[in-house]
From TrEMBL:
Keyword Transport: yes
PROSITE patterns: TAT (PS51318)
Ranges annotated as spanning the membrane: none
Name of this protein: Extracellular solute-binding protein
Localization of this protein: Cell envelope
Family label: Belongs to the bacterial solute-binding protein 1 family.
Gene3D superfamilies: Periplasmic binding protein-like II
One Pfam short name: SBP_bac_1
Keywords attached to this entry: Signal, Transport
Species whose genome carries this gene: Nocardiopsis sediminis
Length: 552
């Protein structure tokens, strides 16, 4: 293929990206994952499989006829329930046949008591007709832990791996075939019929469980968007602050909020969100027959320059400016009023703060762009994580594990969901304002272990919190209109190693510019280094993917 021209970047408009937090990560590239070519690529070379090949490997979609939402989502936005519906039975008999299995999901927070000391585990395992014993990983150190687990081959019977982490594990597509059971003969096409809750998972999400032309992972369908600006709605109202509609208004808002003498700063961090405001693509933009990476676009440069201006003005809390990660604590305590976080982080904050501060309110800022232009809202990959079954089981054991995963895929509005998510009414939870709330025992014993053993559609359901469901539904239905184009939609990709490995050092260099440790003019040098160290190799690879799939 002929050498691809290298677009030059100017500094009159800009934009940025980086590694994510809050239990999910977004890398420079946007994190598409792997499916090998039939004969397999050379190590580190990258690979891709298109929708036509993937379609023959995924389960037939059979929607579950559960309770109807009060506020249907549009164009892929989540459905919403303004009250908790009457739960229905989805599974009529215990799915297991007496087997015992280990499970390794991540956990953010305290580890619940183990088997023999946990009545919630006893309850769910009775319902399953099988025993699941959890070996939780600390979600904050999962990168190092999971790399070691995969490299050593020491996987549990059931292993959950976040989607973003799969992309950081070298040659995961090859490891999947060595460590995990090929689920294709058990689930592909109509073979999924014995597992109706798994059949209820979206076809796009299933494609993210395919590696090396085989189905290995059971997916959790992802929310359309990972994160946005969260703001203290209660303090905005108290201070009579306006909601911004442009970056300049956002900056002026920060100046109005900032009060270091009063121990209040405007902002935490928001570099992953600001690039969307300025309209940079999630990873690649295909225009005029050329692929241009997000870091090469003028929108990327614009967001970097804007963020540097924010930092220079002292609008970011010094803990965050110094590289700290206590954003949640600062936002919840009112020492910052706007931060970047997962769209789901509001519920986490409500659970921790509302008991002591009933007036506390968090909300998502309305979507806005720059200079009258639309933003580019970056869609998540279709699956948030995948669950894998250890290789080496007898077929009947694989089927039993899949029945366990099927039970744990029962969606909101079912009795099974209530059981694995909340436990027994009167013991682990009570209904408060029409929604289940954990009791003291429930808070001690109920974790997210079973929740992470499978996937399910994720509607907006937290009707127990005032001013939450309807505004959140409206936000998603609005934001979905600004989803940017992806030239590689529907193609499952394993990125070349050099291209993948250049992300973190490039992010670090960009952060040095944003935080004042390097000059803005050095951004051109940073991008040139990115091209040299793997970016151009990635461009050639992605250009070939477009040609191979007839999209050039």
């Amino acid at each position: 293929m002929p050498p691809h021209p290298r677009p030059r970047m100017t500094l009159d408009r800009r934009r940025f990206l980086g590694l994510a937090g809050a239990g999910t990560a977004a890398a420079f590239s946007g994190g598409l994952l792997s499916a090998c070519a039939p004969n397999g690529p050379r190590p580190g070379a990258g690979s891709a499989a298109g929708a036509d090949r993937l379609n023959g490997l995924i389960p037939t979609f059979i929607p579950f006829d559960g309770p109807a939402p009060d506020l249907p989502g549009t164009d892929g936005a989540p459905d919403a329930f303004t009250s908790y519906p009457r739960a229905v039975d989805a599974i009529t008999a215990p799915p297991g046949s007496g087997g015992s299995y280990t499970a390794m999901p991540p956990l953010w927070g305290p580890v619940p008591p183990g088997l023999g000391d946990n009545s919630h585990y006893d309850l769910v395992n009775r319902e399953l007709g099988a025993t699941v014993e959890f070996n939780f990983q600390d979600g904050n150190t999962i990168i190092d832990k999971m790399n070691a687990v995969i490299a050593g081959g020491d996987v549990a019977d059931i292993t959950m791996v976040p989607d973003w982490l799969i992309n950081l594990i070298p040659q995961f597509n090859r490891a999947a075939g060595e460590l995990f059971e090929d689920l294709t003969p058990f689930l592909a096409g109509d073979a999924v019929e014995p597992y109706p809750m798994l059949a209820n998972l979206s076809s796009d999400a299933w494609k993210w469980g395919i590696f090396d032309e085989h189905l290995y992972g059971v997916p959790l369908p992802a929310s359309p968007f990972a994160e946005w600006f969260l703001y203290r709605a209660d303090l905005f109202e108290e201070l009579d602050l306006p909601l911004p509609t442009s970056p300049e208004e956002f900056f002026e808002l920060g100046e109005e909020i900032n009060d270091p003498d009063g121990n209040r700063w405007a902002f935490g961090d928001f570099y992953r969100v600001m690039r969307q405001v300025f309209g940079a693509p999630r990873e690649w933009r295909y225009t005029g027959g050329e692929l241009v990476h997000q870091v090469e676009t003028p929108e990327f440069a614009a967001s970097v320059e804007f963020l540097r201006r924010v930092y220079d003005a002292g609008l970011v809390h010094p803990d965050i400016a110094g590289g700290g990660t206590n954003n949640k604590e600062l936002l919840n305590s009112g020492r910052i009023l706007v931060d970047q976080d997962a769209t789901s982080a509001i519920i986490e904050a409500y659970q921790g703060v509302l008991p002591d501060n009933p007036d506390f309110r968090l909300a998502l800022l309305p979507v806005f762009g720059s200079d009258g232009d639309d933003p580019d809202m970056h869609r998540n990959t279709p699956a948030e994580h995948c669950v894998f079954v250890r290789k080496g089981f007898e077929p009947e054991q694989v089927e039993e594990v899949l029945q366990i995963l099927n039970y744990c895929a029962a969606p909101f509005g079912t009795e099974e969901y209530l059981t694995y998510r909340f436990g027994a009414e009167g013991e682990h939870f009570e209904y408060v304002d029409g929604a289940p709330q954990l009791t003291e025992l429930g808070r001690q014993e109920v974790g997210n272990g079973y929740l992470f053993l499978s996937g399910r559609p994720s509607p907006i359901v937290e009707s127990q919190y005032p001013d939450y469901v309807e505004p959140r539904s409206q936000w998603f239905n609005d934001a979905i209109r600004y989803s940017g184009d992806d030239p590689f939609e529907g193609i499952r990709i394993q990125r070349p190693n050099n291209y993948s490995s250049v992300e973190t050092p490039t992010t670090d260099k960009v952060m040095d510019i944003i935080r004042g440790r390097r000059e803005v003019r050095e951004l051109e040098d940073v991008i040139a280094e990115w091209r040299r160290d793997g970016g151009d190799e990635g461009r050639e690879f992605y250009q070939q993917v477009l040609q191979d799939h007839g999209r050039d």
